[in-house]
């Protein structure tokens, strides 16, 4: 291959490899498997995020290095790793997630996924297909140990784009005004650093996510896999001695991985308090009832609905929890609500 290969975010640790084109019609890929792909036709994804986090343009004829992954994104694509060797595939996520789109939001009814062709698999010196999962990070078994006995604040919401990340970012800013050391974890989702970068820009001292363990996507992961990932990321934060860890779980509270975490006693035992972001008033009120039913320590509601005074009033009449907009979260005035 003479083409310059554009390396995506999730493949940032892959530097030495040989491209094997001979197994593309026989090898069944697994999540995290690394391969080289040719861009065939630009659709939804016109850019990818590179190993340096820079957003780079892609055009037909380009070669990219990326990984196989699943994706759950209610506002975008549902996609999966092919169950059989497959050459023509789709870009599922700009951070380097590749698979086959199964469904898409109606907003993309006239927009097709970006189509790519599998060129070959990246192999190591032992002729083994390289895989990004825990490639340069030791997987830790879940122990429930939180570094520095930090208070873990969980940010969850009613759906994708309900305000979870923005609320987490502005809370980080608010807690930082109290002189505390703030860390952030994005535990689940599809690889792309926009969320952890926003929280860092808003004042967090250190931010990590699942891609720091080489995981392109957590969709379809088992509970044990995510619990181990949680411990792995907590241990990465240990040298920082954080006072607070704000942790976000992607998608809505009834999404499969999110729900089984919220209902797991060992996981929730590590959580100090929970903030819920709602897209509208009804979603927020359902979220409050869900938390009460499951015995979860919900301390505040926030999110997209707080952009509307009318929606705020609808919630206020039916909920006695603090309703916090971005100004409230970033001011530090409500730090005590979260244990500050």
Report the mean per-residue pLDDT as an integer. 96
| Class by SSE composition | alpha/beta
Order of strands, main sheet, comes to 14-13-15-12-16-17
- Coarse shape: globular
Helix coverage percent of residues? 10-25%
Major sheet: 6 strands, parallel
Radius of gyration based on Cα positions: 21 Å
Low-confidence region ranges: none
Number of strands: 17
- How many distinct helices? 8
Order of helices and strands: EEEEEEEEEEEEHEHEHEHHEHEHH
Report the sheet-strand fraction. Answer: 25-35%
The CA-CA distance between the termini, in Å, is 56 Å
Notable traits:
single chain; 340 residues; alpha/beta; 6-stranded parallel β-sheet; 5-stranded mixed barrel; 17 strands; 22% helix; globular
Secondary structure elements and their pairing?
Layout: E1 5-7, E2 18-20, E3 34-41, E4 47-49, E5 55-57, E6 63-68, E7 71-72, E8 77-80, E9 88-93, E10 97-104, E11 115-123, E12 151-157, H1 164-176, E13 182-186, H2 194-201, E14 206-209, H3 223-237, E15 244-252, H4 256-262, H5 265-268, E16 273-277, H6 281-293, E17 298-302, H7 309-316, H8 326-331
Parallel strand pairs: 1-6, 6-10, 12-15, 12-16, 13-14, 13-15, 16-17
Antiparallel strand pairs: 2-11, 3-6, 3-11, 4-5, 7-8, 8-10, 9-10, 9-11
